[in-house]
């Protein structure tokens, strides 16, 4: 979607030469980005307007550090290389890359990207973690929209490799290419999209699955625990190393995907088209929240985060995808 015809000032350094990264918005995702960049040996500045943001951020980094240490820290990597600033302007003043992870509200993102664009050095690429807004809709207020890209991570950004990169109509093709390369150098696995798609790729898929899960809870067809077990004891095991398409191709036996579609396609027309979004009323809301409490079996969020982190590391290790320091593509 980015435009080869649009140009912005050239980024002040090559993706390989970045040393200082700014993270603006330091909640679950911004904090996860901070932990990732620190572990990769960058100097990180962060800004978040919440009064308790710094404490929360440092707690998140401390909780992530054991997992990151297992993965292998870059030389000199340290939580001490994090500076939390009092203003947005200070955070980005010397940054060579900016990652925005503020709340998912369109007006807020538009205004924040305008401010970041006004404060960051000319040409520095600014990426948004948005889960679904097209950059075309967010870059409307910025003086230099050419340097604004989406860099959509997955929780937690310090462990899940994927980042989906896509520009908006006014993003320069150079900014898209620069940010894709930067994320690779910073240890991420990148999909660079050539057009804006609602929910990008992975969220669009996750949202479809979640929609069906919410319908099942709403209709009393399955509990939260059964839904989670159905994935972790079933297809989720395959998806960790082979995506849904190739997995289904194998379900077609020697005839592969062609046989699969001939065999099951006609009977799947109805489930493919049956459902619309569930009504997220109070009853469904309460049932999903209570179901998650039940499935947690007394484990706190911190317990679950530690369990998840170890699980992701084990899966990456078992499937030969544990990318340690210095293994950027
Ligand atoms: N949670 C996920 O799984 C996930 C995954 C991928 C992407 N994202 C995206 O990441 C972004 C952040 O989501 P999150 O889950 O970390 O939310 P969050 O609520 O955990 O964190 C948001 C943070 O932004 C701060 N904030 C509020 N106003 C701000 C402003 N004007 N400028 C800067 N910061 C501000 C808040 O104080 C808070 O710390 C969203 O765009 C979201 O769609 C979330």
TrEMBL record:
Domain 3-hydroxyacyl-CoA dehydrogenase C-terminal, residue spans: 199-285
Top class in the EC scheme: oxidoreductase
Domain 3-hydroxyacyl-CoA dehydrogenase NAD binding: 21-195
Cell location: Cytoplasm
Enzyme Commission number(s) of this protein: 1.1.1.108
One Pfam short name: 3HCDH_N
Keyword Heme: no
Catalytic reaction(s) noted: carnitine + NAD(+) = 3-dehydrocarnitine + NADH + H(+)
Gene3D superfamilies referenced in this protein's UniProt entry, alphabetically: N-(1-d-carboxylethyl)-l-norvaline Dehydrogenase, domain 2, NAD(P)-binding Rossmann-like Domain
Keyword ATP-binding tagged: no
Pathway info: Amine and polyamine metabolism; carnitine metabolism; Lipid metabolism; butanoate metabolism
Key words, A-Z: Cytoplasm, NAD, Oxidoreductase
Transmembrane residue ranges: none
Residues engaged in binding NAD(+): 25-30
Molecular function as annotated in GO: carnitine 3-dehydrogenase activity; NAD+ binding
Main location: cytoplasm
Entry's Gene Ontology cellular component terms: cytoplasm
Domain of life: Bacteria
General function of this protein: Catalyzes the NAD(+)-dependent oxidation of L-carnitine to 3-dehydrocarnitine.
Family annotation (HAMAP family): L_carnitine_dehydrog
Family statement drawn from the similarity comment of this UniProt entry: Belongs to the 3-hydroxyacyl-CoA dehydrogenase family. L-carnitine dehydrogenase subfamily.
Name of the protein in its database record: L-carnitine dehydrogenase
Source species: Streptomyces finlayi
């Amino acid at each position: 979607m980015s435009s080869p015809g649009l140009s912005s000032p050239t980024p002040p350094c090559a993706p390989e030469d970045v040393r200082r990264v700014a993270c603006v918005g330091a909640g679950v995702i911004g904090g996860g980005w901070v932990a990732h960049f620190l572990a990769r040996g960058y100097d990180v500045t962060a800004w978040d307007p919440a009064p308790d943001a710094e404490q929360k951020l440092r707690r998140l980094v401390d909780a992530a550090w054991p997992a990151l240490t297992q993965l292998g820290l870059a030389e000199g990597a340290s939580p001490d290389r994090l500076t939390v600033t009092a203003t947005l302007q200070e955070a980005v003043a010397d940054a060579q890359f900016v990652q925005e992870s503020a709340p998912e509200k369109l007006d807020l993102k538009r205004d924040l990207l305008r401010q970041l664009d006004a404060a960051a050095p000319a040409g520095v690429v600014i990426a948004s973690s948005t889960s679904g807004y097209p950059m075309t809709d967010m870059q409307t207020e910025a003086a230099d929209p050419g340097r604004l890209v989406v860099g959509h991570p997955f929780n937690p950004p310090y462990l899940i490799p994927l980042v989906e990169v896509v520009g908006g109509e006014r993003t320069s093709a150079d900014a898209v290419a620069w940010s894709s390369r930067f994320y690779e150098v910073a240890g991420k696995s990148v999909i660079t999209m050539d057009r804006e798609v609602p929910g990008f790729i992975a969220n669009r898929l996750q949202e479809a699955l979640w929609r069906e899960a919410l319908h099942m809870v709403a209709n009393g067809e399955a509990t939260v625990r059964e839904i989670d077990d159905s994935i972790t004891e079933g297809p989720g095991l395959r998806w960790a190393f082979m995506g849904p398409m190739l997995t289904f191709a194998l379900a077609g036996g020697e005839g592969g995907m062609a046989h699969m579609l001939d065999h099951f396609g006609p009977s799947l027309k109805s489930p493919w088209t049956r459902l619309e979004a569930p009504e997220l009323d109070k009853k469904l809301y309460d049932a999903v929240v209570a179901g998650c409490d039940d499935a947690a079996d007394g484990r706190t969020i911190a317990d679950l985060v530690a369990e998840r982190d170890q699980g992701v590391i084990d899966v990456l290790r078992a499937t030969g995808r544990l990318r340690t320091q210095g293994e950027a593509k």
